[in-house]
Amino acid sequence: MDTIGKIRQKAMQDRKTIVLPEYEDNRIIEASKIIEKEGFANVIILSPDKVVPQEKERYIQEYYQMHQSKEISLESVRKLFEDTLYYAAMMTRDGKVDGLVAGASHTTPDMARAAIRCLGIDERVTIASSCFIMVVPNCRFGEQGVFIFADCGIIPEPNPRQLACIAFLASELAAKVLSLQPRVALLSYSTRGSARGKSVEKSAEALRVLKEMAPHLLVDGEMQVDSAIVPEVAEIKYPDSPLEGKANVLIFPNLDAGNIGYKLVERLGNARAVGPLLIGLKSPASDLSRGCSVDDVLDCVAVTAICAQ
């Protein structure tokens, strides 16, 4: 069974309920029919007729109380809740559903903002970020062509601690969703001091922080991507690395690199890119690209359902 098939099968083992607030998008409607047929999740397409007025008012008041210190007005909160996205996010926070998937007709900043503000940040970390599951056909690298890429959608210039948190959260998702042992590489234009610069220093400091945070995690850096994923290159450039050129979780130094990297692999390598999957939140949520396909919706729902198990 291929990776996507395994993900859907795993989601089916403990079926969760995922809310989809973009009720007018044909891709969402089509995906919901397929999900119902395949049975790997229960989905609620949150059309306005499913919004309970009393509950909506309660969510508005709760949201206002949560963010009152930021000097927002009750009127501005009511305006936010004219969009079903915020109601769906509060449903997820409230435990009425197990996870949230949106982004087909919302930008990533809009979706991320709603998820972060409504769901809250996991207490173990100080940030929310994102990752992609990349499935590259006919590839011997990574986990037989399967990788986690992070962060590709949220934090423009992570500091060392943020970079460590991104790596930690991405490795957790790799283990939970894909059932693999994470082998984490902090990527750079340098391999263990072969070049200098602030970015190199940041990756090296992130490695130190991450080892304190998760001492049993198999991680190394800073390293160039060929040293991280090609055993023959690793043997030449970095023979002492515990990764041995077999990294399956790739952590990019900034958002430029991560976003460009995943799109290059997706387009030139004909890879399947599942995500952006939001990580670091108190409840599961996944973003969708506005250019997503029906299959992209199916994939994100399945992964979000597993994260909720």
Account of the 3D structure:
- The protein is α/β, with parallel strands linked by helices and 309 residues long.
- The protein has two domains: 1-120 and 289-309, Rossmann fold (3-Layer(aba) Sandwich), CATH 3.40.50.10950; 121-280, Rossmann fold, CATH 3.40.50.
- It is built from twelve helices and ten strands.
- The chain has helices spanning 3-12, 26-38, 53-66, 74-80, 84-94, 108-119, 160-178, 198-213, 225-229, 231-237, 255-268, 294-307; strands spanning 17-20, 42-45, 99-102, 129-135, 146-150, 183-187, 218-223, 249-251, 272-279, 285-287.
- It has a ten-stranded mixed sheet with strand order 2-1-3-10-9-4-5-8-6-7, with helices on both faces.
- A hairpin with a 5-residue loop joins β9 and β10.
- α7 packs across α8 (198-213).
- The longest helix has 19 residues, at 160-178.
- The chain is globular, with a radius of gyration of 20 Å.
- The model has no long low-confidence stretch (mean pLDDT 94).
